[in-house]
């Protein structure tokens, strides 16, 4: 066991898979000698060589095309999009090509591609760096979308993502990269994709959340406990497909739920969670399922982040509405 | 007094001097005479006959496909008549190990690379069994998103380079496609990694109704390779020998580690853009059509082979009959494909376990389909 930040755990996962499978290739803008703009690929090129870990020209679409082509020659690409706001440049390769590769070839060519990309607010980045666009890719059939919130989850989920035979979007919240350390096992271990994790058990209210909002929700749960409420925090970990079993079991136990996301209310995936709960567990509900989300504006100018981003106070407020409905 | 022209820096002069480098490469003129003996690829008589047969076959395939489409027995179809030299002679320069990433008009190339004809017809109709590429056949199905095949070709070529495979990735787009970002990114990536790729631009003069002149002020499309530092050539796309020669040379350079090539083939499509209601008389004159028909790749190649005494009407009719027969068989075979079910679609979405949502839907549809 070692104490790792999330970014170290991510590097460790890539190192593990580069070692395990010679078809794994890591590439993107500045991921080689530079070790990535966040040091996620630090030391990997030195250890595995320029054939395995390499830089690309500055063109996201080309990077996506490279991934498609490499899968056709038997490789297992782990491509990086430097910031997920740049997804728009490569949306055809992601949603128009990789997601459909198995389908459009009648199952002949699968696309074992992992797309790593940082996102998320709270660190005063310039325009189009922090936007939460997971809702866009979650709506594309053929894609799995993973968002870890801890170093332990990040490593196990990334190894699973790389081993998955289908395209996986792996979104890394920038604020969580180095915000805390956690015990992370050495060597390989996996966490199944599509499985949520109960980060805190409770019996009065379920909070379904992911990314940086997991920590805001845990903070809110502690505050609410002081007022006598027992709050369960479920970290979705994979936002597409959802872990319906865990979600429904939690609602059936607590009878009340909220969904918390950093994305705007019209974006993200919270509406999906609410819909699934109402379809599957409406008879267990004592109150409507409410959402905590950002306002439906463009992602804020950096100095406006603090008032714009959802936080534990918003969560407490919404939780109380549901608890006292 | 007029201002003195600055000889030190004249961007107009620079542009013109570059553009003048891209002269059209030709071996066979419209009369079927060799005008560039030095460049003659010297194909054997057998090879020449095979190439002619493929071009004739494809012309018949085009005529029959248009007719089958009109009868409702084919779906999406993009006519190919006029582009036989560009499509078949470039393909003829490839080997089995080479990988083809075709555009939507490039069905003939993948058929001659090995895709069974009935599968091409199923693809046209919109049936997934048309796209289950047989083992060992190095093709991707026709790309609908114009430009995507270019960036993907760079990836296939990089894969081949990494595997140490002596083979190339070849891809095709049209004149309109050169305006796409992915066109540029594709050739630029291939150049930067010096990978074995051949990029073909089939300049058939029109992107649906938009003439080539409206795509770019560039005098040639071949010169776009200069922006990527990629060797480029403009070739008479109605001349089978010239197309074969430049493609074969590009392949040689590629497998010897000298990187990609961009080839512009100057050609013409006689028919509409697709059979989905495009009417070329709205944007094209019959004068232009007949002007280009004089340059027909079949006419000049036929003359060349006849002069060599290796082709005649009888041989041509044999090919035509064989084509018609095989097309009939293929359509019949396509007719026998089972009707597609939703459960079929679900099953080919993912390799391995299905996510809960589609698994749930598979159960629902399997139940519905059993009734």
Relevant terms:
heterodimer, A: 325 residues, alpha/beta, seven-stranded mixed beta sheet, five-stranded mixed beta sheet, 12 helices, B: 371 residues, six-stranded parallel beta sheet, two-stranded antiparallel sheet, globular
What does this molecule look like?
The complex is a heterodimer of chains A (325) and B (371). With 325 residues, chain A is α/β, with parallel strands linked by helices. Helices cover 35% and strands 20% of the residues of chain A. Chain A is built from 12 helices and 14 strands. Chain A has helices spanning 6-20, 44-48, 60-72, 91-97, 101-104, 134-138, 151-163, 213-226, 244-254, 270-281, 305-308, 312-323, and strands at residues 2-4, 24-28, 53-55, 76-80, 114-119, 144-146, 168-173, 182-184, 197-200, 205-209, 231-235, 238-240, 257-264, 290-294. Chain A has a 7-stranded mixed beta sheet, sandwiched between helices. In chain A, α9 crosses α10 (270-281). The radius of gyration of chain A is 19 Å and the shape is globular. Chain B is α/β, with parallel strands linked by helices and 371 residues long. Chain B is 46% helix and 9% strand. Chain B contains 14 helices and 8 strands. The A-B interface holds A 25, 51, 56-57, 59, 61-62, 64-75, 92-93, 96-97, 102-110, 112, 141-142, 144, 164-166, 194, 240-245 and B 99, 128-129, 131-133, 140-141, 145, 148, 150-160, 162-163, 169, 181-182, 185-186, 188-189, 192, 345, 347-352, 355-358.
Assembly type of the chains comes to: heterodimer
Approximate helicity band of chain B: 40-55%
C-alpha Rg of chain B (nearest Å): 22 Å
Biggest interface and which pair forms it? A-B, 46 and 42 residues
Element pattern of chain A in H and E? EHEHEHEHHEHEHEEEEHEEHEHEHH
Would you identify the regions of chain A where 5 or more consecutive residues have pLDDT less than 50? none
**In total, how many beta strands of chain B?**
8
Mean pLDDT of chain A: 98
Distance between the termini of chain A: 45 Å
C-alpha end-to-end distance of chain B: 92 Å
Main β-sheet, spatial strand arrangement of chain A: 3-2-4-5-7-6-12
Output the structural class of chain A. Answer: alpha/beta
For the secondary structure, the number of strands of chain A is: 14
Q: How many strands, which pairing sense, and closed or not: the largest β-sheet of chain B? A: 6 strands, parallel
* Class based on secondary structure composition and strand pairing of chain B: alpha/beta
Number of helices of chain B: 14
Give the uncertain stretches of chain B in residue-range form: none
Strand fraction of chain B equals: 5-15%
The biggest beta sheet of chain A, please?
A: 7 strands, mixed
């Amino acid at each position: 066991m070692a104490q790792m930040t999330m970014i170290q755990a991510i590097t460790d996962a890539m190192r593990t898979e580069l070692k395990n499978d010679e078809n794994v290739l890591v590439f993107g803008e500045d991921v080689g000698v530079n070790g990535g703009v966040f040091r996620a690929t630090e030391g990997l090129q030195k250890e595995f060589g320029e054939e395995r870990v390499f830089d690309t020209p500055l063109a996201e679409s080309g990077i996506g095309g490279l991934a498609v082509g490499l899968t056709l020659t038997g490789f297992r690409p782990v491509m990086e999009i430097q910031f997920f706001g740049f997804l728009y440049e490569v949306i055809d390769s992601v949603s128009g090509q990789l997601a459909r590769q198995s389908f459009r070839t009648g199952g002949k060519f699968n696309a074992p591609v992992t797309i790593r990309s940082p996102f998320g607010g709270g660190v005063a980045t310039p325009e189009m760096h922090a936007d939460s666009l997971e809702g866009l890719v979650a709506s594309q059939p053929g894609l799995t979308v993973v968002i870890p919130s801890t170093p332990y989850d990040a490593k196990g989920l990334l190894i699973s993502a790389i081993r998955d035979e289908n395209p996986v979007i792996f979104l890394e919240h920038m604020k969580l990269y180095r915000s805390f350390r956690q015990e992370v096992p050495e060597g390989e271990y996996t966490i199944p994709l599509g499985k949520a994790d109960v980060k805190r058990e409770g019996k009065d209210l379920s909070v379904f959340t992911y990314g940086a909002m997991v920590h805001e929700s845990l903070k809110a749960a502690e505050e609410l406990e002081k007022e006598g409420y027992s709050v369960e925090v479920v970290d979705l970990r994979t936002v597409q497909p959802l872990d319906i079993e865990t979600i429904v079991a939690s609602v059936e136990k607590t009878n009340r739920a909220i969904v918390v996301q950093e994305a705007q209310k019209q974006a993200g995936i919270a509406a999906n969670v609410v819909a699934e709960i109402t379809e599957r567990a409406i008879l267990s509900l004592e109150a409507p399922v409410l959402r905590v989300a950002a306002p439906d504006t463009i992602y804020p100018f950096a100095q406006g982040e603090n008032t714009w981003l959802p936080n534990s106070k918003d969560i407490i407020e919404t939780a109380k509405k549901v608890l006292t409905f | 007094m007029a201002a003195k022209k600055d000889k030190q820096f004249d961007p107009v002069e620079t542009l013109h001097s570059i553009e003048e480098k891209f002269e059209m490469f030709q071996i066979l003129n419209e009369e079927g005479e060799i005008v560039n003996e030095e460049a003659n690829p010297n194909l054997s008589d057998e090879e020449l006959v095979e190439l002619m047969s493929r071009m004739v076959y494809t012309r018949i395939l085009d005529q029959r496909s248009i007719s089958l489409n009109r009868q409702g027995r084919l779906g999406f179809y993009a006519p190919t008549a006029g582009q036989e030299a560009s499509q078949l002679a470039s393909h003829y320069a490839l080997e089995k190990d080479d990988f083809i990433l075709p555009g939507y008009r490039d069905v003939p190339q993948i058929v001659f690379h090995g895709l069974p004809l009935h599968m091409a017809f199923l693809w046209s109709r919109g049936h997934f069994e048309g796209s289950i590429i047989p083992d060992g056949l190095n093709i991707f199905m026709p790309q609908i998103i114009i430009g995507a095949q270019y960036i993907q070709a760079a990836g296939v070529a990089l894969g081949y380079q990494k595997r140490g495979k002596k083979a190339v990735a070849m891809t095709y787009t049209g004149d309109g496609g050169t305006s796409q970002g992915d066109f540029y990114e594709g050739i630029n990536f291939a150049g930067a990694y010096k990978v074995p790729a051949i990029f073909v631009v089939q300049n058939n003069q029109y992107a649906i109704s938009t003439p080539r002149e409206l795509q770019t002020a560039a005098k040639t499309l071949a010169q776009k390779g200069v922006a990527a530092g990629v060797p480029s050539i403009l070739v008479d796309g109605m001349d089978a020998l010239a197309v074969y020669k430049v493609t074969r040379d590009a392949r040689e350079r590629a497998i010897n580690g000298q990187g990609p090539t961009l080839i512009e083939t100057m050609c013409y499509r006689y028919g509409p853009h697709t059979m989905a209601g495009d009417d070329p008389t709205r944007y094209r004159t019959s004068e232009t059509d007949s002007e280009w028909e004089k340059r027909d790749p079949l006419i000049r190649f036929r003359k060349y082979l006849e002069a060599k005494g290796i082709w005649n009407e009888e041989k041509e009719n044999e090919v035509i009959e064989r084509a018609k027969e095989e097309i009939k068989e293929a359509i019949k075979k396509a007719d026998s494909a089972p009707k597609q079910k939703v459960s079929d679609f679900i099953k080919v979405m993912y390799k391995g376990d299905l996510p809960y949502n589609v698994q749930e839907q598979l159960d629902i549809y399997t139940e519905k389909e059993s009734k």
